[in-house]
Amino acid sequence: MPPASGLLHGALRLVRNLLLDLRFGGFLGGSLKTSHAALGAYDVSNSDYLALSYLFADRVLPGDQLVDLGCGKGRVLNWWLSRGWRNRMVGIELDQRVAERARARLRRFPNVEIIAGDAVEHLPGDGTVFYMFNPFDARVMTRLRDKLERLKPLDRRLIVIYYNCVHIDVFERSPRWLVERIALPDLRLHPAALVTRIPLAADSPEHRS
Questions:
Q1: For the segment 170-179, what is each residue's pLDDT rounded down to a tens digit?
Q2: Domains in the chain, please, with CATH?
Q3: What are 180-198's pLDDT values in tens digits?
Q4: What does the alpha-carbon distance between residue 4 and residue 6 come to, in Å, rounded to a whole number?
Q5: Nearest-angstrom CA–CA distance, 45 and 73
Q6: Do 177 and 162 touch, CB atoms closer than 8 A?
Q7: Residue 132: helix, strand or coil by DSSP?
């Protein structure tokens, strides 16, 4: 891409993100250094709204419970709300200060809940659509995968939209998941995958337990 074209693209992206951020209480750009690296957390960063429009296209149903794992400042929650969706939305953020700011900013939306703490420990049992923007390392990702596999009922719809899917091999190693790469039309965006839990047969011993 010619330098001028790249600069224009970057400026348009910034303006687009800024305008939607401002609709929900303030600009959310920029990354924050994590103070929880020892727990496997990566720095707090933000998903691009254009990427979200591709990632969630036709993938959310009216009855879905939406969960942003490592929600950071809450930009994904902004995007869900901007669609006019009335689904229950949960953001989980390990950094308490960041979570508190996101909670205060979105407090006027009764369908939004922000949880401060470990995403695996606070995983909502009724979640059906989970989103991640590479929030933590492979060790935590393995814990998350194992807990998602155990969420009941074991035959219900459960998908993970994994953007910047650095540790996608964690899911690829398990027979409980179907991993499909998401083809994004803009090559400047991060790689992404749609990960679907393979339902267990209703009469399987594991399901009956």
A1: 999 999 999 9
A2: 29-208 (3.40.50.150)
A3: 999 998 888 999 999 999 9
A4: 5
A5: 8
A6: no
A7: strand
